[in-house]
Design a protein that fits this description.
Two copies of one chain form a homodimer. The first copy, chain A, is an alpha+beta fold and 339 residues long. The first copy, chain A, folds into two domains: 9-155, PurM-like, N-terminal domain (60s Ribosomal Protein L30, Chain: A, 2-Layer Sandwich), CATH 3.30.1330.10; 169-327, Alpha-Beta Complex (Phosphoribosyl-aminoimidazole Synthetase, Chain A, domain 2). Helix content of chain A is 29%, strand content 25%. The first copy, chain A, contains nine helices and 14 strands. In chain A, the strands form three sheets. A seven-stranded mixed beta sheet of chain A has the order 9-11-8-12-10-13-14, with helices on both faces. A four-stranded mixed beta sheet of chain A has the order 2-7-5-6. In chain A, strands 3-4 form a two-stranded antiparallel ribbon. In chain A, helix 1 (16-30) packs parallel to helix 4 (104-120), helix 3 packs parallel to helix 4 and helix 3 (70-84) packs parallel to helix 6 (204-213). The two termini of chain A are 29 Å apart. At the A-B interface, helix 1, strand 1, strand 2, helix 3 and strand 5 of A face helix 1, strand 1, strand 2, helix 3 and strand 5 of B. Strand 2 (50-58) of chain A pairs antiparallel with strand 1 (42-45) of chain B, so a sheet runs across the interface.
Chain lengths: 339, 339
């Protein structure tokens, strides 16, 4: 790598320094023939099923947090968006917007983290782009990842939940709210210790295993920005069914719960980066739970509620003390820049 | 749209304001069933050929310039990357990173411009994402577009130029360097008037027509960052052939040339956003030129040179006064943030 340890404007110029950064860093770590061909578009074979295509920009602050970094997050976020659509994630793009002066060592760590995460879930980063903006014109580093996956025709309604019926079970693969709290603590906005680690993880292995082994998966969505509450609200909005969930079935790590309570965050609205909400036909719920229990990203699974005929369009939380509370969409921003 | 005319942090929160922005602005303008399904990934049919996949982030400053804006640029840039790979562009993603306080009216103009441009070349924006960062943490607006297109097997080496041979003709669809100069003038860094308009245009119509009508297209690339010189240098780098181009055949608008000369920019290195460099078998050059001449984005076509056996790996410019000059890759940044 030419020069010192900082990203220079010339690293984004399209000239020699850009090329060096691309070859010596991105090609090196993301290494695959499709990317290294350095054509303007990646060219990949398609076996002729449906295609899933998604995009996400990542602006998390700070870039490194317990349990992950912006690179791991950028791969997991897009892989998970594909996975919960019922697709097998295959190819990712990576678009970097970097502030002049950013430390090359930090960029290397992040790129390695992206490469490791992509490898762990069998996806290839096949195309990319780098822009560098003047100091002060972006905050360190933003990453966009877009992704392409293949989808069987029989799974193509999983993203929209067309087949959902009253009686279907609502399942989540573990405890909520750790990602948002881990980032907040790392940001030092919460001046507390506390052993809170982000749940950031790629879920395509888990969802793929479930889709292969069983039918009856009506809907999946990862509970990211806006948290579990937002997934449930959006799920029944303008639909002919309602949702009932039991507060006591929703798991929250004690450390996470303590920090949420102390600072007045509602954990239902705090972002996760490794949690999938599934709606499953009741007769298939048992086999889904069995698969999850033996998977590293699902062993803390619980059935948190079900789809109901009453109060269509509304999600009701049955509280531990026997009350009921309507769960609405997030009205404002609790936690900016957590992804 | 709730609230006043500014983007608030809550527009990127994943909550109600995000949803309103998505539905009332993005869905409205990009309107198509695939996007409006609002699933985590767009699901699209694939007819089973090869897939082209590309990404680009756009950080152009200023956002509006003669001949275009960041939205038109973001669609053209990715459409062109697909087109020059020999693909038919089909689907785009749009990822917005917006500074808190950005004017909603400006965002609307930009989104309309994206929608109009996408419609004009028959592509659909099928998935998207919005992040808002605090004031001062990005410069107004950055847009990432990724794109998917379909590619016939017979065209899959066009992006890499595998079939290039000595004797092949090098063709460009018009005059160079207008985009970079138009942006610089709009930025007021060049305190001059001058009627310079960016060439920003979607080239998929032109390339599609040529690929349909003729064979013998060995290579295509759009001459964006780094300009025509960078395309030519990269084209023959580490290859067994050289390139010779004639300075007098490379067209440059008089206004553009004047501004370049006055300020010491070499127009060969200045970015274009509507120029494609093609390498064409000599016996097919005539029909390519005929098609270009009757197309609105190609009527100013010229044959600028050819592939040669001598000086492999090098591009030589034959100057007007009879000299020779080696064209190397851009060593540094002439013009930051022109795309």
């Amino acid at each position: 790598m030419t020069g010192d340890n900082q990203i220079l404007l010339d690293h984004g110029s399209g000239g020699r320094l850009s090329r060096e950064l691309t070859v010596n860093l991105f090609f090196k770590h993301f290494g695959n023939n499709i990317l290294s061909a350095a054509t303007d578009s990646a060219v990949v074979p398609t076996p002729g099923e449906h295609l899933a295509f998604t995009t996400d920009s990542f602006v998390v602050d700070p870039l490194f947090f317990p349990g992950g970094d912006i690179g791991k997050l950028a791969v997991c976020g897009t892989v998970n968006d594909l996975a919960v659509s019922g697709a097998t994630p295959l190819y990712l793009s990576a678009g970097f917007i970097i502030e002049e002066g950013f430390l090359l060592d930090d960029l290397k760590k992040i790129v390695r983290s992206m490469a490791d995460t992509a490898r762990s879930c069998g996806v290839k980063i096949v195309t990319g782009d780098t822009k560098v903006v003047n100091r002060g014109h972006c905050d360190k580093l933003f990453i966009n990842t877009s992704g392409v996956g293949l989808l069987k025709s029989s799974h193509k309604n999983i993203g929209s939940g067309k087949g959902i019926k009253p009686g279907d079970k609502i399942i989540i693969n573990g405890g909520i709210a750790s990602h948002g709290m881990a980032v907040m603590i790392a940001r030092n906005e919460l001046n507390v210790g506390g052993n809170v680690i982000s749940d950031c993880a790629p879920l395509s292995g888990l969802t793929g295993q479930i889709l292969k082994a069983t039918s009856g998966i009506k809907f999946m969505r990862d509970a990211t920005r806006g948290g579990l509450a937002t997934v449930l609200s959006e799920l029944c909005e303008n639909r002919k069914f309602g949702i009932e969930v039991a507060e006591e079935a929703i798991k929250i790590d004690d450390n996470v719960r303590g920090i949420c309570e102390f600072f007045g965050f509602d954990p239902l609205y705090v972002a996760n980066e490794g949690k999938v909400v599934m709606v499953v036909a009741p007769e298939k719920a048992g086999s889904v739970i069995n698969i999850m229990k033996s998977h590293k990203y699902g062993h803390d699974v619980s059935v948190i509620g079900e789809v109901v005929e009453k109060h269509p369009g509304k999600t009701i939380l049955k509280t531990k003390i026997g009350g009921s509370r309507m769960i609405d969409m997030l009205a404002g921003s609790q936690l900016p820049r957590i992804c």
